[in-house]
Design goal:
With about 350 residues, the chain is of the alpha/beta class. It folds into 2 domains: about 210 residues, FAD/NAD(P)-binding domain, CATH 3.50.50; about 130 residues, FAD/NAD(P)-binding domain (3-Layer(bba) Sandwich). About 25% of the residues lie in helices and about 25% in strands. It contains 7 helices and 22 strands. Helix 1 packs parallel to helix 3, helix 1 runs parallel beside helix 6 and helix 4 packs parallel to helix 5. It starts with a strand and ends with a helix. The relative contact order is 0.16. It binds flavin-adenine dinucleotide. The site of flavin-adenine dinucleotide has 38 residues, from helix 1, helix 2 and helix 6.
């Protein structure tokens, strides 16, 4: 059993920054994360994409943002328990909480910050029996290493922002791309769709798009060689077209799923945790929620918003742990106490 001031659920950008803000206030924390790597959506969904709206970083890749956050929180040595989902949370008689992970790790914490993002999200899969055996080799639900697609013939499935963003991005390095969507209308940003159409018109040998649905994967000696496409919603006699490819990328969106968090007795609105915007506290005193997982009037799901919420929640946690403490805001530039905690002053 691990006793700690705070357990942070989730090591996405907001969970990591919460550990930093708690560290500045001298509050100890443990982070528990389902994935094998910290970083949340930034690492799981778009590590190589550029982000342009982080203050003072005009452009930063999602992976670099997480690396910088890890560097920033390093002075506090916050233990991170990766590869395990927190499954149970129950109240203790002393006002604190008992939490358990799926691997049986148990925590006693005085407070909890839930930074679980869109929960235990999974990409919506390509529902074909042969899909599983190509997953991670020639069939991908996210791009973790863009270079693997250089000089390859790609088929990309989907009509939302992820599909169109990756068509435009990989167009620069792929040998050819065929985008397949089940309807002629795309859900993606109109500017991305217009750009895709114009690139397809300029050089159809390098980029084309089709309306249809993949009905089978084509294989030779266990390797993916292409996809079979039928007109969407047509019967089994509909004309079909075989398209050769080296790699298949599927962007059918995510199915957000709060997972075990949904059963922790918290108020939920449309799969999000309701919080007080001033303190980020849920309806259970001592349990806070920040980042994409929470909702309150005017909420904007941005990393920037989650960073602000991490700072606000850290102060609210401090108040929860020490109700009589007179809270003051200190600057890292001038406070020797904060600098000592950061290890930049002895
Ligand atoms: P997440 O990043 O979702 O991390 C939550 C973590 O909690 C996950 O790793 C999950 O595994 C873990 N978790 C969940 N439940 C449990 C549990 N029970 N136990 C243990 N761990 C758990 N935002 C911007 O501001 N600017 C952008 O340019 C931008 N671009 C984006 C591009 C794409 C393609 C996408 C998909 C999102 C983009 N976003 C952008 C949104 C941004 O990524 C999210 O707002 C941000 O990741 C939210 O951070 P978070 O820490 O709240 O949650």
């Amino acid at each position: 059993m691990i006793a700690t001031d705070v357990v942070i659920v989730g090591a996405g950008p907001c969970g990591l920054f919460a550990a930093f803000e708690l560290g500045l206030l001298g509050i100890g924390a443990h982070i528990v994360e389902t994935q094998a790597e910290p970083g949340g959506q930034c690492i799981t969904l778009y590590p190589e994409k550029s982000i342009y709206d982080i203050p003072a970083l005009p452009v930063v890749s999602a992976r670099e943002l997480i690396e910088r956050l890890l560097e920033q929180v390093a002075p506090f040595d916050t233990p991170m328990h990766l590869g395990q989902e927190l499954t149970e949370l129950t109240a203790r008689d002393d006002g604190g909480f008992r939490l358990r992970s799926c691997k049986g790790l148990e925590f006693h914490a005085a407070a909890v910050i839930i930074a679980g993002g869109i929960g235990s999200f999974q990409p919506r899969p390509l529902r074909l029996p042969e899909a599983a055996r190509h997953e991670g080799r020639a069939l991908h639900y996210h791009v973790s290493a863009r270079e693997q697609f250089r000089d390859q013939d790609l088929v990309i499935l989907g009509g939302g922002d992820s599909a169109l963003d990756w068509v435009l991005d990989l167009h620069a390095i792929a040998r050819s791309i065929t985008l397949i969507h089940r309807r002629a209308e795309f859900r993606a940003a109109p500017a991305s769709v217009a750009r895709m159409r114009s690139l397809a018109q300029e050089d159809p040998a390098r980029l084309r798009w089709l309306v249809g649905q993949v009905s089978a994967l084509l294989e030779r000696d266990g390797q993916l060689t292409g996809v079979r496409v039928r007109a969407a919603d047509a019967g089994s006699n509909a004309p079909r077209q075989d398209i050769a490819c080296d790699q298949l990328l599927v962007f059918f969106g995510l199915s957000p799923n709060l997972g075990p968090i949904a059963h922790w007795g918290l108020e939920i609105d449309k799969r999000q945790l309701c919080v007080d915007a001033q303190t980020l506290q849920t309806r259970i005193p001592g349990i806070f929620a920040i980042g994409d997982i929470n909702t309150y009037p005017g909420k904007k799901k941005l990393i920037l918003t989650g960073f602000h919420e991490a700072a606000m929640a850290a102060y609210a946690v401090q108040k929860h742990l020490h109700p009589d403490l007179k809270q003051t805001v200190q600057y890292t530039t001038t406070s020797s106490a904060l600098q000592k905690r950061l290890g930049v002053r002895t």
